[in-house]
Amino acid sequence: MSRYSAFSLLRGAFNGQSHWKPAWRHPDPKPHYDIIIIGGGGHGLATAYYLAKVHGLRNIAVLEKGWIGGGNTGRNTTIVRSNYRQDALHNFFEFGLKLWHGLSDDLNYNVMFSPRGALTLGHSDADMVTLAQRGDAMRCDGIDAELLTRDQVAKLEPLLDMSRTARFPIEGGLIQRRGGSARHDAVAWGYARGADSLGVDIIQKCEVTGFVRDGDAIVGVETTRGRIGAGRVGICVAGHSGHVAGLAGLRLPIESQTLQAMVTEGVKPMINTVIMTQALHCYISQSDKGGIVFGGDPDNWPSYAQRGNPMIMENAVAQGLALVPALSRLRMLRTWSGVTDMSFDGSPIIGETPLPNLYLNGGWCYGGFKATPASGWTYAHTLATGKPHPLNAPFSLDRFERGATIDETGSGPMPSSR
Amino acid sequence: MMQIACPHCGSRAQQEFMYERTVDSVVPLDAPTDKAMAALFTRTNPRGPDDEIWRHTYGCRAWMVVTRHRVTHEITAVRAVGPEVLP
Ligand SMILES: [Zn+2]
Questions:
Q1: Which residue of B has its CA nearest to A415?
Q2: Which of A180, A197, A217, B2 could form a cystine bridge with A356, CB 3.0-4.6 A?
């Protein structure tokens, strides 16, 4: 693999940029791999990359039913942050945030990570107490969090409606300055290029249709491109975890729901940070192209439809306009949606399953993108060693029956109430 | 968006309804622990039809079982909830 650099770009200027080569191969599947990862999204590709890079394994395949990065990796709002209250969550996501900060260098691929700050607004005294508590919990573990006054918020985001008659009055906020956003496609492509260069076979248009079993143990997969044997198999298909695990006869603590997002026409810089709120479920940021990216609630009923619902869209936009009235002048360009794994405590699942050799990474709810590096790192550890990494040990599949759920919002075991 | 045919009110817009849970996640009072755990914390989550409990919250407030396809959203049956419908 040739390295990308300013020098190679400059040299390309003199040869018509003819030095560009495909960033990964299109190999045919081999009869057997040591590890098969089902799902070529950011998480699956990151897992393959770290399996090769950190654990020195080479005989690895990533099977993707469509094209890589075409699922939720390409459908999210690209927010990166680690501002959770609970230890298990903020330690996991902070490990990921640290990887984000060195990711472009590590991959030799510009993922356009932009740590512009992740700002959570508070709309009442109660919100501010909750935000202070969350910030304190983070700072106890050495994670940056800064409580902001009303004036500080107004200075940071001058277009917010700070009036006392605002529909959602703003009392202050909590900012994580090292948070921000990244270019989602580049994350998938960068990991794919890195994994491929270390010998990982990325096999696209290859859908898993069943599992090959030896007693209880999983020893391979049936695919649309034939049977492929495997030492270990890792499911990494968030959104469709229930379906794929169902092929192995498992029922998961997951219900699939649609989550939609939308983007306006491009305008000059007007939103400086990633704006979220403690009381609403609306998040706003501005892409590098200038479009204002909106996200809102999941559609709170089960669906695999990959298309959104106008009720939810209207809700998200109404909240966004109430916070930043100037947005009302913009035209919406595109809306899209993805299928999310809504887990029963709002936290992901990474670890073993009851079936030997079969592992699961899923349940990302609406927060999977920011986890990509940490998810890949810890899942690679789990697949390479057969045991969880300390950071993903709390996110085991059996935590529900043990009563050890990780419920950040405290809303109980109902995916539709997140 | 969906139109849901409430057994009491007729066809109404989806905004009037709330999704509750799937029928197989209702825990019978005499369920053994493993069955209760499975009902509370797991779902079949099929990429196809499933039986779901919805409520006409902003209408007559009655519960109903909706048989609905998870990909096409096509509704093939709506039944009022009664002892013969739920476990
Ligand atoms: Zn009714």
A1: B21
A2: A217
